[in-house]
Amino acid sequence: MFTETVRQQAADYGMLLLRFLPLLMILTGSQVYGVTKYEIKVTTSDDIFAGTDASVHVNLIGVNGASTGSINLQKSAQDFDRGSHALKDLQEATEIEMAKKYKDVCESKEFLAHIDGDQLLSLLSRDDLSSPSETFIFKSVMQWIKHSKEERMAVAAKVIGAVRLGLVNIREVVAELNTQDMRMIPEINTLLLESLLYSVEPSSSSEFGTNKTRSRSMKSGRSTCAFVQLLTIIHFFIAKRCNISIPLGMENGHISNQSITASSHYHRYPPWHARLNSGTAVSWYALPSDPNPWIQVDLDMPTWLKGVATQGKRFSLFVKTYKLAYSSDGIHWSTYKDAIEEREMIFKGNTDPYKVVKVELDNPVYTRYVRLYPKTWRHGIAVKMELYGCRPE
User: Fold this and answer.
1) String of b and e for 287-319 (b: at least 16 CB within 10 Å)?
2) Do residue 285 and residue 368 come from a single domain?
3) Angle ∠(129,138,127) on CA atoms, nearest 5
4) Annotated Gene Ontology MF terms (predicted)?
5) Statement to judge: residues 294 and 358 lie in one domain
6) Strand blocks (E) in the chain
7) Per-residue pLDDT of the chain (393 residues; tens, 9 = 90+)
């Protein structure tokens, strides 16, 4: 009875191999011409005390019956009796081989058809994944998604997120992720935004830089392109998603009071009084003791910022020049820079307290948080403002 139980559980163990056979066939498929077949043999001893000779033998067979490899797995009867045959060792061994041969593996039909999302995610997490470049890996992941797009879009963000996007050519990232289907997934929008920001300003996201730029064990480095080319890509991205520039809600109140904050203010002049055209006596008014004054607007969601308008208040209080900073999370900030010389831009503000002065950004930024840093002013730091741009489609 005990022997029959062991034999049956060993047979079950062999059947569990079926889950991994597509992976094993992928490994051998590039070595033979034709369809790779397989056979499973289960052997156990008739000896009731056999402790080590219950085994499963897998033979991978190529064209004309030529063996392309075999795996012999041996477990004790006690192990089979306890049911500890989840094939973790086989899975790890298979992944190691797939990582070594990833360039050939990912181009096979079996890879596209049979690898599931969890298996691909596990493979992409490996530092020893061998490939010509991270861009190659990114392209292979996109091919895998497209092969069964309807069912795989549910895991698209996870597997794309496992790619080290900071090492991928930004042109490829934009071309693949800036599509109607991909833009419907919020997590992919975030990955695209972070990739763009990192390409322009690597210091803009320390978390992205740490997690998405770690090299694998291959000859690869961060894909770079000339700054002018990068701006062309970003402008193309903008053109597809943002063709207008409208007030974003400071003047009309669509941006709530709670979304407008500042480094300091006089009691009667809080930051939410910084709404354009709200009256000559009204504005945000920073304390003169503030060593680094700023006013911040939370746009509530990632938004294309394309322009800023400023205005002062009566008694000749106005800001003459200022800088802009932007952030996707309100923690890590980037200062808006000149596209050619890459210097922090100083914008011209007001020359009197009443006239509205608007500036257009040569290179719009996709951001949620915006800060205005007054640099020079007359009599005091008093600002009313409006932001211009458009929301994502």
Assistant:
1) eeeeeebbbbbbbeebbbbbbbbbbbbeeebbb
2) yes
3) 20
4) signaling receptor activity
5) yes
6) 37-43, 54-61, 67-75, 246-247, 260-262, 284-285, 295-311, 318-327, 334-335, 347-348, 357-378, 382-390
7) 444 544 554 455 444 444 445 555 554 443 333 334 444 444 444 444 444 444 444 444 443 444 444 444 444 444 434 444 444 555 566 677 778 878 877 877 777 887 888 888 888 888 888 888 889 999 999 999 999 998 899 999 999 999 998 888 888 998 899 888 888 888 888 888 888 877 776 655 555 556 677 777 644 333 333 344 444 444 445 444 556 789 999 999 999 999 999 999 999 999 999 999 999 889 999 999 999 999 999 999 888 899 999 999 988 899 999 999 999 889 989 999 987 677 899 999 999 999 999 999 988 888 899 999 999 999 999 999 999 998 765
Q: Are 310 and 173 part of one and the same domain?
A: no
Number of domains into which the chain is organized: 2
Residues 267, 188 share a domain? no
Residue 179 is assigned to a structural domain of this protein: yes
Are residues 178 and 278 located together in one domain of the fold? no
Helix (H, G, I), strand (E, B) or coil at 375: strand
What is the number of residues in the chain? 393
Residue 169 lies in a domain: yes
Q: Which amino acid is at 326?
A: Y
Structure tokens at 327: 């952030």
For residue 256, the enclosing domain spans 246-390
